[in-house]
Design a protein that fits this description.
The complex is a heterodimer of chains A (227) and B (384).
Chain A (H helix, E strand, L loop, with lengths): L1 E10 L3 E11 L4 E5 L6 H8 L7 E6 L2 E2 L5 H11 E4 L11 H10 L6 H14 L15 H13 L5 E5 L7 H18 L2 E5 L3 H4 L4 E6 L2 E3 L2 H6 L1
Parallel strand pairs in A: 3-8, 3-9, 6-7, 7-8
Antiparallel strand pairs in A: 1-2, 1-4, 4-5, 9-10
Helix pairs in contact in A: 3-4, 3-5, 4-5, 5-6
Chain B lengths: L1 H12 L1 H39 L4 E8 L12 H8 L4 E7 L4 E8 L2 E10 L7 H6 L8 E5 H8 L8 E4 L2 E9 L6 E6 H8 L7 E6 L5 H15 L6 E5 L4 H42 L1 H9 L4 H35 L10 H28 L2 H6 L2
Parallel strand pairs in B: 4-8, 5-7
Antiparallel strand pairs in B: 1-9, 1-10, 2-9, 3-4, 3-6, 5-8, 6-7
Classes of the chains: A alpha/beta (227), B alpha+beta (384).
The complex binds adenosine-5'-triphosphate (ATP) and magnesium ion.
């Protein structure tokens, strides 16, 4: 489903953040990416999430390359196929839980208002936030806020969830609850999940872990340690 | 639709900041409303007046005596009328009195005053209710006298029903009027006036009816040329063509300069408002970089974002515009207390105002909105 071939990324024409990354991710896979700070993890998943198309090499999503696509088609693919979860949740602070989850639906044409309501109520139930629909993010705990963010990520039924340190701002117990939720989504809906994390325990929830160091990708931790 | 709710939300969140920004638009639009209302009111009053006068195919020549002494004896003669009716394009000629006044003695109970006597005609400056009490086309010997004359003849007593003597004739006073004019203190019906003073006042107006298909201007000029050359009293006075729109034209001139001034005020305040809007939109965009990033990550196109901020800028301006229209309306009520005609706010001027507000929002919101749309996504998402 995702195929990365010799992808490199250079910042400011001189700093090479990624060099010759090769990576295949299968449909329904739950992949963790680990590596030290500044190694290029966020840089890589920004490319995978079509947030950044300024790179060299090839990246195919569903056998389609979007490097040279225009803004409109990139945006629509993002909206339809990908759901993002961020370390610091990135909820709109003056929007209620319900309204935050609604955002991806605003930009995808299909639903009517009643459709929207049903879909949103469904995902709210899936992440276990019934009764919090009309609360503001500031009225929720960190774990609950991340659940809102996950609900927002899955409301459009994406094929892939891309998560940049989803547990980074949470204590380990809450973090594990979020991971249970990820695993549940992965198993029930066969959603592909690509997750960046610092935490070995969190990474253990994934089926496979890859490692990045100094912009290079390694399939096992040993090679990282060896360097 | 979604953009509208987002826009209202964002505007509500920063009420004070946005109200200040709107101030320029409010002033600008209020000025626009006032200009248009005065202009429209003026045009309406003129068209009404012109409609009443039915001057469409008439040209009036005036005669102005060189000295006051000859005023009563000189003017257009029947010979002149015949002359004028021979001018090419002239259908017929009517002579009349523009002033309808004579200067003579008025007395009662031994008190005397020398004053102008006026005839009540259509053009009288005595107001309508008083006029109607004095049957205009009656031959009656009824008169209206000014408060000034009443004071002089009767002191503080009521003058109604009493009599005054003008020349050898006795008249019954039917009412009084107040006037700022010092000259004419007595008015009587036109027929009576003509009967008594026939021949005493010269005909100083010649009304030419122009044949259809002929240019009023050309016919007027031909007639003027002819009467100047061969008018009977050409040495005692001057002839000229009366311009029925003259008074209006001079007022229009004043109005125009006022309009230019107010338009300048409106223009400047709209420009300042526009810059204010641009500034506030820049602030709004940079405050909400995080929000933009989130929306973009979840499927919003650059165009979606641009439209969102454009909507916000337009809504901001239209709210300002609506407030401006309301304040403009109040100002027009105020202005009307000082105007000789009624300034009117038309649907058209309201539409123009709303259109101008929209345009300001669109114009000055475009650059910030575009900036928001073009920002790099990764940068936006790094924002806290
Ligand atoms: N916009 C940018 N311009 C220049 N250099 C950048 C930019 N973004 C990232 N970098 C550099 O690229 C390298 C990789 O950054 P990246 O954000 O991918 O690291 P990371 O692995 O996600 O680190 P962390 O675990 O701390 O989040 C870093 O050295 C960083 O300084
Ligand atoms: Mg990172």
């Amino acid at each position: 489903m995702l195929r990365v071939k010799k992808v490199s990324k250079v910042y400011n024409r001189k700093f090479k953040a990624l060099s010759d990354i090769d990576l295949d991710v299968n449909d329904g896979e739950f992949l963790a990416i680990m590596g030290p700070s500044g190694s290029g993890k966020s840089t890589l998943i920004n490319i995978l999430g079509l947030l950044d198309n300024d790179y060299t090499g090839d990246y195919y999503l569903d056998n389609q390359e979007y490097k040279d696509s225009d803004d409109v088609s990139m945006s629509h693919i993002r909206g339809d196929k990908i759901g993002f979860v961020f370390q610091n949740f990135k909820l709109l602070s003056n929007y209620t839980v319900f309204e935050n989850i609604e955002i991806p639906l605003i930009y995808s044409k299909t639903q009517t208002i009643t459709d929207r309501q049903t879909v949103i109520n469904e995902v709210i139930e899936q992440v276990g936030l019934q009764g919090k629909e009309n609360n503001l993010p500031s009225e929720l705990s960190g774990g609950q806020q991340q659940r809102v963010a996950i609900a927002r990520a899955i409301v459009n039924n994406p094929q892939i969830i891309i998560a940049d340190e989803p547990t980074g701002a949470l204590d380990s117990k809450t973090g594990h609850e979020i991971m249970d939720l990820f695993r549940h989504l992965n198993e029930t809906f066969n959603t592909t999940i690509i997750m960046v994390t610092h935490d070995k325990e969190v990474a253990d929830f994934a089926m496979r872990t890859v490692y990045i160091r100094d912009g290079k990708l390694y399939q096992d931790q040993q090679s990282v340690v060896d360097k | 639709m979604e953009n509208l709710t987002i826009a209202l939300r964002s505007i509500k969140k920063n009420k004070n900041r946005n109200l200040l920004t709107m101030l320029g638009i409010i002033i600008g639009i209020a000025s626009v409303i006032c200009i248009l209302a005065v202009g429209d009111g003026f045009t309406q009053s003129i068209t009404k007046e012109l409609g009443q006068g039915n001057t469409s195919n008439k040209v009036t020549l005036d005669y102005q005596a060189n000295s006051a002494d000859s005023a009563d004896s000189s003017g257009f003669t029947s010979g002149d009328a015949a002359l004028l009716s021979d001018v090419k394009g002239v259908n017929d000629v009517k002579l009349s009195n523009y002033d309808s006044t004579v200067f003579t003695n008025v007395s009662s109970q031994g008190n005397k005053m020398k004053t102008y006597i006026g005839a009540i005609g259509k053009k009288s400056d005595v107001n309508r209710t008083q006029r109607s009490s004095l049957l205009i086309d009656d031959n009656s010997y009824n008169v209206l006298i000014s408060n000034r004359l009443k004071q002089k003849l009767f002191g503080n007593d009521s003058a109604n029903g009493k009599t005054i003597q003008i020349g050898t004739d006795v008249f019954v006073i039917r009412g009084t009027f107040s006037t700022d004019e010092y000259s004419t203190n007595v008015y009587m019906p036109k027929k009576t006036f003509n009967h008594i003073f026939a021949g005493k006042s010269g005909k100083n107006q010649a009304k030419l009816t122009v044949e259809s298909g002929q240019s009023k201007k050309a016919v007027g000029q031909r007639a003027l040329k002819k009467i100047k050359a061969s008018g009977e009293y050409k040495h005692e006075g001057k002839y000229s063509i009366e311009d029925p729109t003259k008074a209006m034209k001079s007022f229009q001139k004043v109005l125009n300069s006022v309009t230019y001034f107010v338009a300048l005020v409106a223009g400047i305040s709209l420009l300042i408002a526009g810059i204010g809007v641009m500034n506030v939109m820049y602030i709004s965009v940079s405050e909400r970089r995080g929000e933009i990033g989130i929306r973009r990550a979840f499927g919003a196109t650059g165009k979606n974002i641009r439209n969102q901020f454009l909507t916000e800028s337009i809504v901001l301006c239209v709210i300002g515009g609506i407030l401006g229209i309301i304040i403009g309306y109040l100002l027009v009520l105020l202005i009307n207390a000082f105007l000789p005609f009624k300034a009117v706010i038309t649907i058209y001027s309201i539409l123009i105002s709303l259109l101008v507000s929209c345009a300001v929002g669109l114009l000055f919101g475009f650059i910030p909105a575009n900036k928001a749309a073009k920002s790099s996504l990764v940068g936006l998402l790094k924002e806290e």
